[in-house]
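To whoever is covering the structure queue this week,

Two jobs came back overnight. Logging them here so there's a record in the thread.

Job A:
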Amino acid sequence: MASEEELFASVDALLNEEPHLPPPAERARLREAAGITQARLATALKTTTQSVKNWENGRSEPKSPRLDAYQRLLNGWAAKYPAPSAASVPGAAAATVPAAPIGPAASAGRTTDAPQTLTVPAAGSARPADRPAAASRRPAVKKAAAPAVDPRFPHGPLAVLNGDGCAYGTGGIVLDCPAATVVELVEWALRESGLGAPRLHRNGKDSDPLIVLTAAAAVKLGLPERLEGHEQRRSLRLPEDHPVVKAVVKAKWRLTQRGFGPWVRIYRKAQGTQRQCVQLAVLSWDALDERSWPGVAGMEPADIARVLSIYAQRVITPRGSTAVSGLELMTALRPPTRAVRDEASGNWVPGHNPGSLGTEPVDPAPPEATPEHPVVVDSGWTGGFLNEEAYQWVRDVSLLNDEECTLPYAVGLDLNTAFLAAAARLVVGLSEPDHFHAPAFNPKIPGSWLVDLSHVEVDPRLPSPFTPDGTRPTGPAWYQTHTVAYAQELGCNVAPLEAHLRRETGAYLDPWHDRLKAAYVDTLADLGVTKDLDDRAFLAAMERHKDADPAMAAVLAAIKATVKGGIGKLRERPQGRKYKEGERWPALQRPTWRPDIRAAVIAKARINMHRKLRNMATMTGLYPLAVLSDCVVYPSPGQSPLDFLPYAASGKPQPGGFRLGPTPGLAKLEGVQTMLWAVDLMEQGYNPARHIKGGDAVLDEGE
């Protein structure tokens, strides 16, 4: 039987517990019954009007000592203005969802299936206070079911922190962040925010919380509003003696090698299986590049949170530039290790995960490397390099016939994420290269082949499939397997002189392709561009899709940049003025520094493009004016691709050539110019495709 002291101790513990507030809707009713505005209440409690709105919407909860004062006020109002009986209130059966705790209890002992943070008002009750967000103009489309919420991360993957302490998250949720320093922000993000995202693969790691700082939030935390210096913006960092950096180090937190820049990762050694890492992004330091995230940095915090949350849900929680995120996505979907049982000890230990690139970097073969790579500099290699790049070709004006010159328009067709389509079912090397002399060509083995393709005949009105500039090869050169296989497809009897081949192979990029393809197609569907549209409706939808919803259009642009940047990042070049040729640069320490995989993707995309060009010439007699990367320009009698694309008598597109549609690898209208303008450009040595596309970056190798 319990003693009197034990009973009194238990009772005292109950008395000392934090007070329980009434449901959010009741808080708003009591304040309105007392005739007090949210702004006046905020002044009395020494907080912001937005925080009061959040308390009354169930999006956040106050903390002591403000919690005790708020409780006392509500109790006083409740005595003066008791709630009417449930039977007398119309629609009283409408449920009020209890607010989720924001604190350590949010991730331990939770029994709900989703974060219960929003109030469901009864019929006829007051509408919750509006948050600052732009109205959505998305077309009405059928939505897929929302993904299940991980109870460990009830508030989503990320939040955008404003200067008033409001952290805007997924689904319109707004959290109250009391942090006044970067160290406090990191502690709050890990222990109280409920932010994070579950792993994408069972052998992978959960995504760390991401906190995006507005300019006002950065200044409040002691950071400069802008980073200034002579280096490129992405290379700028806070100096090591900056007070914020010193405070982070003093609190026993660490920074990665890239320091405290626009994207910063702050971490400690993991405790068991619990990671201690937070990612910060500073908007006013150009963390969200305008090319990859058009217009996002200038949006309201709630809309920034919406854009980034959709990207995180469909792709990955951003961890840097879209190029960095594209590379991180590869590793997240193909983790380098998995748990295996050690036969000697019986314990589970990390072991190689089949199909991945492993944990150790692998040096490329000399012809696959870049001229400044140590394997080239140290060996004195002079045997040439693999030159698998995207097309930049213009047809010579002398090869235009009279009929082509009389056509009034030049129409650009752009292939949807052509390099993503090339990554589908692409077999690449997973191990280090082996050198062979005079091997028999095998189209199923990925690698680099030294072979002479200068004798392969190609119609001069088409670019050569073997070179990026479309000119005919002049002798032996290094080619990726797909390029040599295409020469064989054209009837050439290839005889390689040398080869660097890999014995272990696999479709490493398959899950990466599948996830990004789904993200791209789903986002286009949100913008009204769906698979069931006919070609005319598709072109009309593409013409207006960027204006339908700027936020979703920004997500689409980010997904496309993730594809190109991720592939380009596989061969990241050295950066910085202090680099010396022959030194190893940081990117070489990654298992994902694989120029051979990048070459395989680009070679397959270029070959796919040339195959379509050949088929178009066969079916229609049309030849391109120019090709830039994934854009091809044709002379046309009208302003629409429907005026020259091949269609069967039934009205269906002919297979083999260019087809319109939202799926990666299919085409869309990129631009229209007058034919005289295009011919004039060609005579001056310009590429019409480049002008129609607006000079898109080709496979950016950005940070």
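Job B:
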Amino acid sequence: MFDILPPSSGLHEVQAADTKLAAKTGRTVTILVKGESFGLAKEVAEKFYFSYADLRGQIESDYFDSLSLFVDSSSITEITGWLHENRFVLLDDETRELLKNGGADEIAGEALASVYGAFSFSDLSYLGEDPFLLSERNLRHFLEGGAISATNMALRDDVLSAEKDGEFYVLIRGTISEQGSSLTGKKSAVKNIYETAELLQRNYGYDGRTVEFIFSGVPFHSYENASSAQKQISVISTVALILIFVLFLLIFRSIVPAFVSALAVAFSCVVGFVSVLLFFRGIHILTFVFGTTLIGTCLDYSIHFFVNWTGNLSCESGEAVRKHIFRGVTLGFASTEICFAALFFAPFPLLKQVSVFLFTGLATAWLSVVALYPMLKMPEIRRSVLMTARIHSFDVKFGSKSVVCAVPALLVIFSLLVIVANRRDFKILNNIQELYSMSPKMLRNEITSAKILNTGASGWYFILKADSEEELLQKNEELGAFLDEQIESQKLQNYLSVCQFVPSQKKQEESYAAAENLVPLAEEQFAALGFDDFQNYEENYRAKKERFVHPADSNLPLVIKDAISNLWIGELDGEFYSCVMPLHAKPEEEQFFREYAANHDSVFFVNKVKDISSQLDVLSKSMLKMLALAFVAVVAILCFFYKIRLVLKIAGVPLLVTLVTTAVLILAKIHISFFPITALVLVFGLGLDYIIYAVEGSGQKSSLNNFAILLSFVTTALSFGALALSNFPPVHTLGLTVFVGLFTAVMTAFCVSKT
């Protein structure tokens, strides 16, 4: 969903970094294996893990970049060895301050107590080189701080697990590969994960045993929602096109109109698709959803041609048919193109794509009708039951002035009553959370995962920017110090920052300098421990000078790499970026943290849900302004062709459409937001077509023209309005708005044609 939304106005400076961060976090998955016993949960988790990894831990790259289950002795050994190697520069704050303030003797005493204590659990592997147990102090800092796991999971039998309500959970974490992130391809990781989980549930869920997989992460939501939306749109569109094809056969009693119209629609869509690729080098899936407007619009032109081609006996050739419909079709084409062109000026890549797709596709459809259709041979039989008697019957029974004009009047009264009754809700309000609704199963998964893991992700974070790696690490430490103060004041419980794992070089230099205070105590410490080779200690210390740790080091332990993978964004265009994530932050304190970022250079506060919703409010208002300008331009053009009284009638149609659509959206509990407003732009273009056709066709052959307008509405309602049946919120809103708007427009068009 974030792919189609504009960036927050305050994030333009760090948009590339935020996009890279989203690409990382957007492929991260969490899987909890639930069992009635720890042994069962662990066994199933191992079976799942080894479905994608070999015994050496090599991961199948088709599906995952990384996958972790075990936190075994080798992992502890790796991180302990790394901490030992860098023990002089990775001192925790408490140890460093003790050494700087004359507490070297205290550290030496604590080390001896750990070695000789009755209940010592210290790792003494490096005691001969590290008599002060600096690496152990650093390890304890990592583990006790909770920065590595940041969850409620505890280490048990080499895996992270938890127990709740008599059920046991084992944690698996992974990052899906770019190839595996495909939603529909053969290498779709999510699809394969579901298949593997289902197989394991069948194999282990017998004799009353319960095994369940709990999935959490963006890829699972993307897969489920995209699969559902694609299936719905495909079914709805396929059924609609079949119905339209059958309708054409029934009305025209010939396969030519249906076949030629289908070719014209297909050709227009291809041209629109190619145009978008030429302009943008790519196309978003929702551009196709908006692009279904072309089906209805292209069919409008075809219908007006073929209705007269079949039933207008005064037209004896294709050229005569073109001449008869040319002004109406061309004025309708011009008004619609102006509305579509207005979309291009929105500061929103998706709308620019939609604009190019519709603008070029519609131009292709118009050219097809006026340039190619006249070449068709006129039908031998120009009369049919539906094209004569039934059209006339329709016009007499339902096309009378009293009947047709009553409908718009009732719609006005209805709309005003609804809007007045709900006037407090009458405002532009975007909430991107309303654009996605979880299935009950996914909602249960996320609730369970949140309870078990208790990571406390707040939904917002900081992005930090600097000119160098060192400056960026120092900014992380500055922000970390601020957040530590807020933890004490209970504004949050914890946070994740790269500086918790890799301090700045400045701080590493301070640690190294502080560690020198232990050198004079080395001889006495070694003697107390029963060693006599104390001189090597100073040599080792001196050898570590100028050997600092960096976030991009290839020799970082895997646990550390995983921990900072979503925190260290790295270098982009010569500048460096990182992310800091507050945990268990109080929602009411958001403004406090936002103000901190606003008052500090190169610190950006990000709450995508709120920021983008606000940005969409601004964009929605600008869309309304562009729509108003397009409306004025269309009215100005019509003044050259019609009398001012008639132009005012035509101008009233879009206003009525807006009024009725607003009332229906209020009743449907849908906010006046970006997608309904965008749909109104499409309705303006299509609705003006109806009124122009009605005006151009009034008088002689008006019954034939009215039937063509009605048929145009039916086909558009089937091809585009039917999307209102989808439960994918943006598509549903789009389809509903278009259907209601076009229904209002067509009824008003009939009214104007009678007056």
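Note for Job B: The longest helix spans residues 218-252.

Please reply-all if you pick these up so we don't duplicate work.
Q.
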